[in-house]
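Late entry, written up from scratch paper. The run itself happened at the end of the previous shift, but nothing got recorded in the book at the time, so transcribing now.
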Amino acid sequence: MQIKKFEALSMQEAVRLIKNEFGSGALILSTKKVRKSGSVFGLFSRPFIEVTAAVDFEAKNNSPRSPLNLRGDKGGLEKDISGETGNDSTSPKSGITMTHLGPLHEEISEIREDVRSLIKLCSSPDQERDDESIKEEISQISTMMARLTRETGGASLLHLHKNFLHLHRRLVTGNVDEQISARLIEAVSKKIEKDEAENKELIRERLSDILTRNINVTGPILNREKERKLALFMGPTGVGKTTTIAKLAAHYAIKEKKRVSLITLDTYRIGAIEQLKIYAKIIGLSVDIAFSGRELADLVKVDDADIILIDTAGRSQRDRLQMSELREVFKYNIPIETYLLLSATTKERDLNDIIESFKSLPVDRLIFTKLDETTTFGPLLNTMVKAKKPISYLTTGQRVPEDIEVATSKKITDLILGNYEEG
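Output as recorded:
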């Protein structure tokens, strides 16, 4: 959609300019009176009309778009929305209220016809008209059009069937970023023929397929025989790092019969070492303590375990000193795979802040915790796109080792679309 401001001395002249450039399919989005200065301090300024109009060339031309890419590849979705997503969902830019989307498609069509009729009226030389009443009517229609544009996630969705808008509402209600939602719905619409637009189930299946293909997951920490792995877990305070490590340690030591070592760098929190030692004792393991990156490097050199799980202190993303202390661990070229833990209950704005702060550290994978404490899972997708990192594990409670599972694209898709059922 192309948007442009037109200036004229009268509404009739503005409409003529719009029609000449955009044609009869143009939409008037706003009108206002302004005064253009003719001298110092505007003493001899003159009033004129400023009209903002738009035309949806893309809908007319049906030009192809690049395929959807959520995974983090160059040129994918995250490139298009980098630095723009993650705003508060009530911000002017997003404007998502997402209510009563069912009849919006018909309402949009009716408004378009009203605007076209009004433009035709204004451009007719034989029609008597009241400029003020026409401008008032245009203003009312423009206000309605702007609201509908916001509620449907942007002008790019306005031409779609109402069933696509219903699905868009469902995504945004689940806290999927509105721009990501719009890109997904556009991708789905390209997979649906016109005569299939009434088939809600088919549209939903196409969305599920696209999501599943684009959600990037890694599989478990150890996914090959005779593989040795060092895994370091970091994240903000209270996200559940120690409990997650205990779950993984129990799984690999008891179920997989692997040799597991536990090392903690968390010497800040009162009782942190004792908490890990209690879990370790139940599992039948011991815990080593490292007070620095150098000590950690020395410990892993002499450790022949199949998997070494390394706990760290919770770090406030706003505390630069704490972040620099964690950064010191990576100076010793230890072959560590790093996992950033994030709570699924964290507010979107805070998740963005955490991702931005941990960019200075070599994050390899994401783990989402506390999925049992929320009912909206869009932030999992949003964060994967913004961080450009795959998801490895999901945790769903406090039980050790039961409440953890390897993340799969299908599981995350079902969570986002509301298909998840416990048990």
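DSSP finds 15 helices and eleven strands in the chain.
(Scratch paper discarded after transcription.)
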